[in-house]
Amino acid sequence: MKLGLRQVTVFAICALVVSATALVAADKHKSKKGQTGMPQMEDSRRALHALNRLTFGPRPGEAERVAAMGVDKWFEQQLHPEKIDDHALDARLAGFRTLNMDAKTMFQTFPPPQVAKMVENGRASIPRDPEKRAVYEAMIAKYDEKKEQKQDAQNAQANANGNNANAPADDDAIKRQRQQERREAREAEAGTIARLNSESPDKRYQDILRMAPDERNRLLQALNPQERQAWMNDFTPQQKEEMQALQNPQGVVVNELQQAKIIRAAYSERQIEEVMTDFWANHFNVFIGKNLDRYYVTQYEQQVIRPHALGKFKDLLLATAKSPAMLLYLDNAESIGPHSAAAGGLPQRAQYRMRRGPFGYPVPVNRPQRPQQNQQKKKSAGLNENYGRELMELHTLGVDGGYTQKDVTEAAKVLTGWTVKQPRDGGSFEFDERRHEPGQKVVLGHKFKENGEKEGVELLEMLAHHPSTAHFISKKLAIRFVSDDPPESLVRKMADTFLKSDGDIREVLRTMFRAPEFWAPEVYRAKIKTPLEFVVSAIRSTGAEVDNAMPLVQTLNRMGMPPYQMQPPTGYSAKNEAWESTSALLNRINFALALGANKLPGVKVDTAAMLGNSEPPDAQATVAALEHSLLAGDVSEKTHATIMKQLEASQPNGGGMAADHPPNTGMIAALILGSPEFQKR
Amino acid sequence: MAITRRIFMKGGAMAIVGTAAVPSFLTRAAWGAATSGGRKKLVVLFQRGAADGLNIVVPHGEAAYYSMRPSIAIPRPSRGALSAIDLDGFFGLHPAMDAFKPLWEQRHLAIVHAAGSPDTTRSHFDAQDYMESGTPGYKGTEDGWLNRAVASLKEQNTKESPFRAIALGPTLPRILLGKEPAVAINNINDFAVGGRNPNAQPLANSFEAMYDQSVDAALRGTGSETFDAVKMLKSADPSRYTPAPGANYPRGRFGDSLRQLAQLMKADLGVEVAFADIGGWDHHVNEGNTQGQLANVLRDFSQSIAAFWTDLGNMAEDTVIVTMSEFGRTARENGNRGTDHGHANVMFVLGGPVKGGRVYGKWPGLGNEQLYEGRDLALTTDFRQVLGEAVYRHAGNHDLQKVFPTFQNSPQKFLNFLG
Fold first, then answer.
1. Among all residues of chain B, which has the CA nearest to that of A343?
2. Strand partners, A419
3. Cα–Cα distance measured from residue A501 to residue A508, given in angstroms and rounded to the nearest whole number
4. What residues of chain A, 289 to 348, have a C-beta less than 8 Å from chain B?
5. Closest C-alpha to A461, from A477, A475, A443
6. Mean per-residue pLDDT, A642-646
7. Residue A570: which of A212, A282, A320, A301 has the closest Cα?
8. Higher confidence at residue A347 or residue B3?
């Protein structure tokens, strides 16, 4: 039976090779032999290939520009992002204040919902600043409302249990009722809306801010989306943030980060840095939805990942290990050595109370303890293996890197005491000696003498320089940039560079870029774009202007790749098979249709740029221009014929979709963006 | 929802009239002729993140259970909502799963304890991969066992539908990868080219033509599965099927998945195997006991399944639902009132033909010397014995070597919870 499976595999591989060869032949890109004797792609394709692989996709005319300056020169420039001017991007991001906010200010400005209960219990107070105050009050109003709803639901449940004849209303009835409620709410608020509409944006903002929370909630719920958008457009970025914070304060932090990811990917001139930041943020994945992590992922990306994205791997690894984001995500912040002072000196339960309040939020250490807790039995556990395991499996050695369960446990002991100081107050890394497991530890046969925080540093250095790590990281890079199943010859070259250069990521990328395997004709357009790559490459190739990236974030959510929301520590797959599915394909086609027709709110495609800033004389020329600007002409005969046919069919009636440039440029663009060819890079 | 549904129905009706070449099975489904009478259905549900089986089906008869879990143990039965729901005097259900109690009493629900993958890995990723490939320890396996289960069924069943194998979610999971067409569907209402715009049909045809001729085999395959499925779904119009009275799905992704799965099954789309998953089981910190993180996700899990069961109505007679999770968790709680990665776990089997009301499998005990590596529940039932029995006796696929090639499986190894 194993044989049978293998046969299937062999067959699949043959089929792949044949089809890849067919593609290359069909596309008339004859290969030539490089110096190594390995077939190489033509010079005219090299710039395009480099852009497809190392950036989020070429913009109109970019392949020509890169070819003119020389691909190698472009690559070297990209490896030094600090020398590339990116002011235009900074301007686009200027509205997102949280990107440069420290975690402490974030907590205060955009507090988590639990703060409402803390205010109620007298453990937090309402700030004086009118804007912050409004946010707190809105939150408390929401909290009270939720409590009432919960009570109502319980009562309803009790009633339902007593009376089964009361069958649940069907969806339609509920919908009708909600519509009715909305209509009534709308009528009640019509006067207020009209008055606010007549005011200047600033006056309007001040008036909304001054409303009582429930009054404001009624107003905001009565607004229709167009009105809401119109008001938002008039506000300054800070006012926009405030308006959103009144509804969902911590959502501001997450949404700004998600939007910034798309805007950076789409508009940064430092594309390799951006791609590598995405690569490492995914490699060292942190789920933004885990407890307090939503306040730490912003700085994690900006201060931990990005500065090291092209630096030394050991520095990157150490920075992630000490980041509050990772310490909280993989629970090392909670880990306590079983024989540490923290585990033995004080009873575990009392410890626990001291560190964590009712919502899992740590509370000040000087809170009085109930005396009976000190009488409880001592407990020796406290070790949390989560980080120790993922550190070896996912961050460094790889799952086959040759470690055992014993190594995981010992590594976890080495790292005890690595925690976060005051995590709910913008905390930072702290080594807590009292939690550190005393004694010698052995990881991968290497002895770690008792040495406090330095043990962990030593362990991370050892892992960062391990041959398994060099191979694992090199292979992962090659999967992202070359092919799903990269040649071992390439991975070995990259791993050698990794080991010789003290894990210098820039050098490893250079080795990859210079290797003939990177330029082999069979890897040309062989990778299926991930949803992020697909969406951003569509934005880039159409020269689209993104005023509001949230619709794009929502598109990624639907495609199964919500930014910063991958819950397991594995991150998203860069392999083709992960993204080939029916639902995903429909979502891609539908995104292409919406983008082409300019129907995505907040996103406007640049028709003129797509057409090369010229007026094509006829439909034929329009199609040719779009095929060139969106796909560099890599369009199969069938796709081309289908587009022409569709164009003819829709011409007499003026087309089924809104056209902003005759002939229906939007529709042609949509067909190209949704074509099989555009799904690949 | 109401508005959407009406537009969708209209679009669906137009699509039937306007589509020239509709396969015969489509028209059958569209005109509502009964075609699936007695078609067996196998539904596999995955709890991703390693669910804590010892707090789900609680061995309340084991003193060691209580000594190893001082703060997270579920109290022995007979203390109302604050204690385990007794099953057989030794095992009890977590109180958040009271939705399962009637299913147990009606003998539709069986439990297999100390089951799972024999591989020693404690990596979520590897362990999930193994349970989905069906070949623990062999990473080279390219397809998933549920896909292979359909592939070998094919010879026995000539009626084919693009919905024979479906996964609820935005991407196709490992378990359904393989030669046989399988459909991933996230939201029934969006499952059409142009979404809810009925005028997009010409464009749909254009995209279909492009993908049909793509040189990329994978994209071509995905394309044809997609466009077939879209057409079929349009004509069958599953949105007509609202949840049956009493089928109260909790809000959330898992409840949504099962609600939509029930719609697809009731719309007679030819579903034979289906897959859905639910995350949020990896409780290293503050797992909780009768209340808390695990209780919350268990409530969602059990209420969704119970609603699905109710919703299926008579169809439940032909349906077997199996749950699994990549591994269990440590028998002892850790220092953060949570549990770390362990070994054996619990599986649920629910279905019309299931001989329920019984806990199957050999209980290995929780004594120190009985624990696997001194820390985890030992494994006494390979998950493929359970799945193999469902595939063999329910789905009627007797070629177990094809479905689980690295496992010596045979009816002698079955636990006999079926037939």
1. B335
2. A430
3. 8
4. 331, 334-336, 338, 343, 348
5. A443
6. 91
7. A282
8. A347
Sign of torsion, CA A146 A147 A152 A157? positive
Q: Which residues are within 8 A (CB) of B79 and not within 5 positions of it... i.e. 6 or more apart? A: none
- Six-digit token pair at A640? 């081309």
Task: Supply the pLDDT for residue A651.
Answer: 62
| Paired residues of B168 in beta bridges | B185
Residue B220 located in a structural domain: no
Residue B67 lies in a domain: yes
Both tokens assigned to A561: 């790749």
pLDDT category at A515 given cuts 50, 70, 90 is very high
**Residue A470 CB partners (closer than 8 Å, separation 6+):** A495, A496, A498, A499, A503
Give B37 to chain A, closest Cα distance, Å: 27
User: Backbone phi, then psi, for A549, in 5-degree steps?
Assistant: -90, -5
Burial class (CB in 10 A: 0-12, 13-18, 19+), A181: exposed
pLDDT of res. B366: 97
pLDDT the model gives residue B156: 52
All residue ranges of chain B with pLDDT < 50 are 1-36
Partners of residue A352 in chain B, C-beta under 8 Å: 337
Q: What is the CATH number of the domain that holds B343?
A: 3.40.720.10
E strands, A177-250, in order: none
Q: How many domains does chain B have?
A: 1
Token pair 């991975």 in the structure block, residue? A491
Token pair in block for residue B64: 């060691």
Q: Residue A17 corresponds to which tokens in the numbers above? A: 């090779």
Q: State residue B157's pLDDT score.
A: 52
Assess B196–A contact: CB distance below 8 Å, yes or no.
Answer: no
pLDDT for the residue A652: 53
The DSSP result for B323-340, as a single string, is EEES--B-SS--TTSS--
Amino acid at B52: D
Q: What is the pLDDT of residue A175?
A: 67
The tokens for A385 are: 């293996």
Higher pLDDT, A561 or B65: B65
User: Inter-chain contact A671–B172, Cβ cutoff 8 Å?
Assistant: no
Task: Compute CA B87 distance to the chain's CA centroid, rounded to the nearest angstrom.
Answer: 23
For the stretch B361-410, pLDDT in tens is: 999 999 999 999 999 999 999 999 999 999 999 998 999 999 999 999 99
Identity of the residue in B190, B230, B401 whose CB atom sits nearest the CB atom of A1: B401
Nearest chain A residue to B6 by CA distance is A172
Distance CA A418, CA A247 (A): 36
DSSP per position, B64-95: HHHHH-TTTPPPPSSSGGGS-EESSSSEEE-G
Q: Mean per-residue pLDDT for A431-440?
A: 96
pLDDT score of A657: 43
β-bridge partners, A443? A446
> Is residue B294 one of the residues assigned to a domain?
yes
State both tokens at B283: 């409780």
Both tokens assigned to B356: 């329920």
Task: Indicate the average pLDDT of chain A.
Answer: 84
Of A352, A583, A644, which to mutate for an interface test with B (greatest number of B Cβ within 10 Å)? A583
Cα separation, A6 vs A18, in Å, equals: 18
Q: How many angstroms separate the CA atoms of A394 and B410, rounded? A: 37
User: Measured between CB atoms, which of A5, A12, A331 is closest to B285?
Assistant: A331
Q: Report whether B170 contacts B186 (CB < 8 A).
A: yes
- Region of poorest pLDDT, from A215-219, A319-323, B258-262, B265-269: A215-219
Alpha carbon of residue B238 to chain centroid: 20
Residue of B nearest to A9 (CA): B142
> Does residue B387 sit within a domain?
yes
* Interface ipTM > 0.90: no
pLDDT tens digit sequence for A9-55? 444 444 444 444 344 434 444 445 555 566 677 777 899 999 999 99
Rounded average pLDDT over A180-196: 84
Structural domain for B54, as ranges:
38-193+238-413
